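Predict both folds.
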Amino acid sequence: LPCLSLPSSMHLIQVDSVQRWMEDLKLMTDCECMCILQSKPISIEKDEQNELILSSQYSTCDNLQLLLKRAWIISTELTRIAQKLEKNRWQRVHSMTVRVNCHVRSMINEYSTFTRNSSEEMHQFEKLLIDKCSEFTAFTERCLQTEDEEILKSMKSCINETLTTVAQYFGQLIELVLTHETQALLRQIELSGGVCVTESAVSGLFSLAQEGAHLCRIIAKEGGVVALFKICRQDCFRCLYPQTLRTLASICCVEEGMHQLEKVDGILCLADILTDNSHSEATHAEAAAVIAQITSPHLTFTQHLSSFLENMEEIVTALIKLCQEASSGEVFLLASAALANITFFDTMACEILLQLNATKILLAACSDKRIVDTPYSRDQVVTILANMSVLDQCASEIIQGNGVQLLMEMLFEKSPSGNSAEVAACERVQQKAAVTLARLSRDPEVAEAAVKLSCIPRLIKLCRSPTERNNSDSVLVACLAALRRLAVMSPDGLEDSDFQQLVKPRLVDSFLLCTNMEESFV
């Protein structure tokens, strides 16, 4: 989503560092001993051994998370080995190589306890990786037994080459494992007619999709988008629609997912869900999230969504209705984000919104702090207003809905928490509020209302005070443009110094003056 940062999208590594360390600690401690223990059968009877080991496992999802964590540790260790090797820290290189060797064996043993029907190709890569890790450890051990610089120099190139091969085999094995697990989850969906098994498989796909774009590509390539839309077309799985749509939104962040969505008429399916009043609000909200994802202006591969234009009017109508009837801030955020993106996607959307009284609905929502409760929501609203403001008819709608007052308030947008994502959202709100004012102020009535509400002094303050705009250049440019438009309508509202510095010069000269003001105050 363009201006959203939802917790569910958080990647494995992007968590509190202490929490990350605590989770990894059990995998990092005494791995040499653990590796030996895991290689020994506890029971002679194979079935008994499997039963004992698997009894400690929770689910396929948990096992995959364990595998991914182990893979993350190995990947990190390989990177660190390359760094230490560059500095000729041979003792550290060897100890880390031993650790990687043990982690690789542990990962393979762990995976073999919960997987069935591993492919022959996977077994081959497991053997290749283990053999190459053993060779790697032997190489580094030999380096400890000599101090001859020439010998070490010649061995360094061999170690570098081996390290590259280990990383390559490791990457290919992980790719095979994740593909195998994705295929297994998709087989569950295909063969199961039951809600519980399907729900478990969808949950597994969602967990995989959260691990990043590469996993989303694997899922899409293996037919994940097709399988998930198949669920969304069966009434018997209605209770799974929200979870399934959430998974689709994650997968469709990659081009492969978008192509699959187009092939299965995904847009039509989403339109049907959004316009079907018998669905729950949660289902409508998650369908809106998918729309927001696939129409994101940050994506470069949305041009092929020709079917979207065919269904745009009913989608926009359903989304503005969802905004109007939203029972929570989260629902409003998802629906308004989808609308904001659509207004970038095609200008016809702005005309449809104008006919649907969207301005009135959005302005009314902004007065309800329970619904529009974050800078992220206000960012979506002001994006829609900014894009609609290119239409001449929009000005009267803004005036009637007291929209100029709202735009003035948005020029004061500040982050209460200081969180970087929230600060960035506040900057976008200020910038787009100024852009909207500049566009609408071509109408004398809007310009007059803006002057009466003291917009000019606020715009001047934003231009002259870098801290007021959080040192944002984009906010500065937008404020200079809005100030110049209002100055034409009301020249008496500016002092001569403001006019000479902020209005009269070329915009680029005023911009350079304002960006250097911080230095002049010191």
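Second protein follows, with its predicted structure tokens after the sequence.
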Amino acid sequence: QLHSDQDKGDGSLKYILSGDGAGTLFIIDEKTGDIHATRRIDREEKAFYTLRAQAINRRTLRPVEPESEFVIKIHDINDNEPTFPEKIYTASVPEMSVVGTSVVQVTATDADDPSYGNSARIIYSILQGQPYFSVEPETGIIRTALPNMNRENREHYQVVIQAKDMGGQMGGLSGTTTVNITLTDVNDNPPRFPQSTIHLRIPESSPVGTSIGSVKATDADTGKNAEVEYRIIDGDGTDMFDIVTEKYTQEGIITVRKPLDYEIRRLYTLKVEAENTHVDPRFYYLGPFKDTTIVKISVEDVDEPPVFSRSSYLFEVHEDIELGTIIGTVMARDPDSASSAIRFSLDRHTDLDRIFNIHSGNGSIYTSKPLDREVSQWHNLSVIAAEINNPKDTTRVPVYVRILDVNDNAPQFAVFYDTFVCENARAGQLIQTISAVDKDDPLGGQKFFFSLAAVNPNFTVQDNEDNTARILTRRNGFSRQEISTYLLPVVISDNDYPIQSSTGTLTIRVCACDSQGNMQSCSAEALLLPAGLSTGALVAILLCIIILLVIVVLFAALKRQRKKEPLILSKEDIRDNIVSYNDEGGGEEDTQAFDIGTLRNPAAIEDKKLRRDIIPEMLFVPRRTPSAPDNTDVRDFINQRLKEHDTDPSAPPYDSLATYAYEGNDSIAESLSSLESGTTEGDQNYDYLREWGPRFNKLAEMYGGGESDKDTS
């Protein structure tokens, strides 16, 4: 209540209020000066308010006293319960922790005034989670209350914590929160194999690195505490197998370390150990943190391919060996217990020229064609070994054949030498330096010797002893008019065994040279130019010669094309053939071109007979052609053609109609040609064809059928 000393109680003064909350939260009675609160005041919103009050004359509105300031302080009451910042807390603690291990601290706040009574004094207690956890009343720290809590038994716990003000006394306000506590894993469990013995199987043909199977030890822990490393610590197969730890699945993968052989060993025993890689020293007393198991591996038999005694073979052989010489032998065996026989063969894709062959039974490789180091120094073969009982099961091995050199090639000139000598050359003058090459390759290197095949009065050869030689003149002066070209045989020999030599001929032209020895002209025709033969005439002569050569070549080519093809294309085809000449002329009646009777046997009957193979268009009286006298030229021609056919390799090896008509005298079978069909009268009897064998059965049926038809009719 505000009151002014000037207030006489007659209502002449008026009280006014200003400041925090004036007119809203606080109002003043302008007549009495009483201050009232318009609503409930919350200290937690504002603890004090500063106000100003003044008394003024109601009529003049002038202050009668100076303005005064005063503070209204709000006294606290316990109207707020403790609250936690989080409704749910999450915490963790390692399993097997000792009693009293701190888990987490929770803190509640109270909006009441901590300096006024016990309204803000908070006490913590546990409503849920006993007997596993406890909480400190003053601090709110949650601690473990039981020893050796095992995560493998129970992993998650829910604890409810209460915070109560007024020091936890009756009538105090409270708030709660939930704490979810998880036990984290520690390595307190060793790995354990579920079986004491594990059986695995693998075929003996499995290559190195093949996975046989897996073993796994179980561990109740998780994460890195459950990581296990596997190793083979004992057994009779420690050198044959490996074990690798698979980190994702924590399995031990057993693999093949060396090739297996069923015939050598069929069963292996391994002792495999699994051990934790991260061991906590605090829990050594729970160990040992490892376990062992026995793994038995059975090797299964398979039909294996043959095995060669070596991975590759190298044979060396001289190039001059005789055909059929054995250059080496490959060996292979069947690794199976049945021990099947082996058959060897050569892969012909590696020996396209079929230079080598192999004995299928013992694997001996021998030559079937001559060897030549200068053609091919190495031959890379592939030998195939297959079981006779199972030819599809094969093995290959490379065979390298090195051809050793033999001195079988004579040295020759290195290049073609265009040698000339000047007409004004002096004795002892160098006109050419020659060298040689040899296809052979002796171990000591090439060494050649040069000499003349015979003493030459004009030139000589001087060996430089460095595989070269010099050609020197032996006399002064040469003349193109006398001799324009000299041929000088030079003998070149090597020093290997056996000594090989060859003779190379140098063509030495005589040329006109200047005083410096430079060649000016070597043509012998140049001497005739002053006589009046021009260059144009020489060119014309050369053109004529070229044209004549072309004509001769064309004529020879046409003659070759017209040469008849062999009647028999295969040596094995000895059947009767009907040869078609495709050019039969005008027939027997065509006598305008020549008299066919000239080609016939003079002793043959010349009477014209009717042909049986065609129907005559008209009846005519056969006329007799006078016998032609014996023509010597025709007989010589026929004999010449007969001799050519006897020596011709393309001629058939049996009787056939040649291009000449003279067939000789008194043929037993007479002529089967239609050319002679008109020389006999009436029908002939061809029954004798059946007596000539099966090759003439077809002719016998063709010509003898008519008679049989007549008989049956």
